[in-house]
Design a protein that fits this description.
Elements: E1 3-8, H1 13-24, E2 31-38, E3 41-48, H2 51-58, E4 67-73, E5 88-90, E6 95-100, H3 106-115, H4 127-138, H5 147-161, E7 166-172, E8 179-184, E9 189-192, E10 197-200, E11 212-215, E12 220-225, E13 228-233, E14 237-239, E15 244-245, H6 261-267, H7 269-277, E16 281-282, E17 287-288, H8 297-301, E18 305-310, H9 312-329, E19 333-337, H10 338-341, E20 352-358, H11 364-375, E21 379-384, H12 390-394, E22 397-400, H13 413-432, H14 437-457, H15 461-471, E23 476-481, H16 486-500, E24 503-508, E25 526-530, H17 536-548, E26 553-557, H18 562-567, E27 570-573, H19 582-600
Parallel strand pairs: 18-19, 18-20, 20-21, 21-22, 23-24, 23-25, 25-26, 26-27
Antiparallel strand pairs: 1-4, 1-10, 2-3, 2-4, 5-6, 6-7, 7-8, 8-12, 9-10, 9-11, 11-15, 12-13, 13-14, 16-17
The structure holds fructose -6-phosphate.
Length: 618
């Protein structure tokens, strides 16, 4: 979590820093701050809460100076107070830094520094890094011929002592033209401009400033000056930076007339799905095409078990993937929470393929689970949205979603793009094995119907808003579905609880009888996902059970059916599509329901409390 930025060049640093922090605010918004080095030394401004608060604190006194760093925080160590906001100073203020990550051994380091006389101003783990660098500088001779080397050595020596993760941007009060960035386990990119350089936690702040970007890797350290960039590796010394072209368009991260990113992203889903499928459907061979799996068809044919791992919403799409891959590719699939997989030691046979599913590509648990399985010699692939992310780099290969930037904290278009990508993978693996040409052709035809079906599903918006009005004040929701739509129930419940703070539980509809039915009363609505399919009648029976106990029912159904109309208090119709693709369509009204309820309850839809978009701590 947390977002960091840095700038060195001819312009006023503060402008880029504030703008960059706004674009990174999705990574955390407990507090923010900037430090700018000008003629009068370092000007430091910090504020609790959103970037807007920081802008108010700065007021009209925007700091002059063309070198600076900034931070937006998701609190881990220490509450979200101004004192705990970054940047932090080290020594007597000669070192100023921002940090994204967690320092696990900060306590003994802090005790050591306190014993040496360093005075701590915050309860964060990050402040130890600033004092450690100051301490390293204090013990290195000032008259050394190569002044730059002295700072680099101090940062490197400090990095060597840290356990945990860090993305760092460091400025030195007596060094007006140089910033140092360092990375281990937390993402960090350097933007290469003309006579200027930028640092950011991801590429989004760079859009509109430069399209040339260097993704720093673990144990790399970058020295940025207006006209030069030097990258060093802890073990290999100076390396030539791999400058890549940035594809993000500024327009893609604007609200585009929508009130919230979440709503915009919900409405972007037909296009996101089109983009996920673009160039990947092979009519001639009735299969899907994937360029980046980095495995031969022979290797893929020999896969006899698949593990899908991820967190949160990405874990839900993994569950959809399990149904798809088992039905169409006939490969046994296990879905694992990445946070559990990373510490478990399950027996994994040589023919197992591990997929990490992630929007951000930065989720710490998913990254760690992939790294651990790779370390054991297994092949790991990523299904990932953010190009060049840590997970994309760590995996042996993978598939990009091409959904475009997802800014709203609640994942929407990434989820449906993940489900669509998993559906294409099921086709691909199926066609490598037993799935017939004819079956492959019809599968592709159905995939092609998806964008229009999702578009049509979006027309339920006004109806769903009415339902949200009716139920906005309840305390608990149940979400129930079966088979392919059991994950839809989980996802609907997660969307509602994370942005509206209403307690919601998702269950396989038949499981309800084993406990959750005790929650049913006239104040607890149950949302049933009940499209036509193998368990249609069974779910109708579950609806009867809720109805018999006086529970209000909202049904997400495919076509008019008097049975549903008589049972449900509200019915939302979505287009019918074969059962295996139905989750991608059925989830649309649930996303809209969560959105409208949250809005009516006055919640911050795009930045719900306590959450952040990228969970880069475990
Ligand atoms: C929920 C949500 C989270 C993420 C989870 C994993 O709406 O967005 O549950 O799905 O934090 O994030 P990624 O997919 O970036 O690994």
């Amino acid at each position: 979590m947390c977002g960091i930025v840095g700038y060195v060049g001819p312009k006023t640093a503060g402008t880029f820093l504030i703008d960059g922090l706004r674009r990174l605010e999705y990574r955390g918004y407990d507090s923010s701050g900037i430090a700018v080095l000008g003629d009068d030394g370092v000007a430091l401004h910090r504020a609790v809460g959103r970037i807007d608060n920081l802008v108010s604190v700065i007021g009209s006194q925007s700091p002059s100076g063309s070198l600076g760093i900034g931070h937006t925080r998701w609190a881990t160590h220490g509450p979200p107070t101004e004192g705990n906001a970054h940047p932090h100073r080290g020594g007597n203020g000669e070192v100023v830094l921002v940090h994204n990550g967690v320092i696990e051994n900060f306590q003994p380091l802090r005790e050591e520094l306190v014993a040496k006389g360093y005075a701590f101003q915050s309860s964060t783990d990050s402040e130890v890094i600033a004092h450690l660098i100051a301490d390293a500088l204090a013990t290195s001779p000032r008259d050394s011929e190569d002044a730059e080397q002295r700072y680099v050595d101090a940062v490197q020596q400090t990095a060597n002592r840290l356990r945990g993760t860090y993305g760092l941007a460091v400025l030195f009060a007596d060094c007006p033209e140089m910033l140092i960035a360092a990375r281990f386990g937390s993402p960090l990119v350097v933007g290469v401009g003309r006579g200027e350089h930028f640092i950011a936690s991801d590429a989004s702040p760079l859009a509109g400033h430069t399209d040339r970007i260097v993704y720093l890797a673990d144990h790399q350290l970058a020295i940025l000056r207006p006209g030069s960039l030097t990258v060093l590796h802890r073990d290999n010394g100076k390396i030539s930076p791999d400058v890549q072209m940035l594809e993000t368009e500024t327009e893609q991260v604007s609200l585009d007339g929508y009130d919230h990113y979440m709503l915009k992203e919900i409405y972007e889903q037909p296009d996101a799905i089109r983009n996920a499928m673009r160039g990947r459907l092979d009519d001639q061979n009735a299969t899907a095409l994937f360029g980046g799996l980095n495995l031969t068809p022979q290797q893929l044919r020999s896969v006899d078990r698949i593990i899908l791992t991820g967190c949160g919403t990405s874990w839900h799409s993994a569950l959809v993937g399990e149904y798809l891959l088992e039905e169409f590719a006939r490969i046994p699939v296990e879905v694992e929470y990445a946070s559990e997989l990373r510490y478990r030691n399950p027996p994994i046979e040589p023919g197992t393929l591990v997929f990490g599913i992630t929007q951000s590509g930065e989720t710490a648990d998913t990254l760690a689970a992939l790294v651990e399985t790779k370390r054991k010699g297994h092949r790991t692939l990523a299904i990932n949205n953010v190009v060049g992310s840590s997970i994309a780099q760590a995996a042996d290969g993978g598939v990009y979603l091409h959904a475009g930037p997802e800014i709203g904290v609640a994942s929407t278009k990434a989820y449906t793009s993940q489900c669509c990508t998993l559906a294409m993978l099921a086709l691909y693996f199926g066609r490598l094995r037993h799935l017939s040409y004819e079956a492959g052709k019809s599968y592709i035809e159905n995939l092609r119907r998806l964008p229009a079906a999702v578009e049509q599903a979006l027309s339920c918006d006004a109806l769903v808003r009415g339902i949200a009005e009716k139920y906005q004040s309840v305390n608990t929701f149940l979400y129930l579905g079966r088979q392919y739509n059991f994950p839809t129930a989980l996802e609907g419940a997660l969307k509602l609880k994370e942005i509206s703070y209403i307690h919601a539980e998702g269950y396989p509809a038949a499981e309800m009888k084993h406990g959750p039915i005790a929650l049913v009363d006239q104040h607890t609505p149950s949302v049933f996902i009940v499209p036509r399919g193998t368990t249609y009648e069974k779910v109708l029976a579950n609806m009867e059970e809720v109805k018999a106990r006086g529970g209000p029912i909202i049904a997400i159904a495919c076509q008019a059916d008097p049975a549903i109309d008589s049972l449900a208090d509200d019915v939302v119709h979505v287009p019918a599509i074969p059962e295996f693709l139905q989750p991608i369509v059925s989830v649309i009204p649930l996303q809209l329901l969560a959105y409208h309820v949250a809005l009516m309850r006055g919640c911050d839809v795009d930045k719900p409390r306590n959450l952040a978009k990228s969970v880069t701590v475990e």
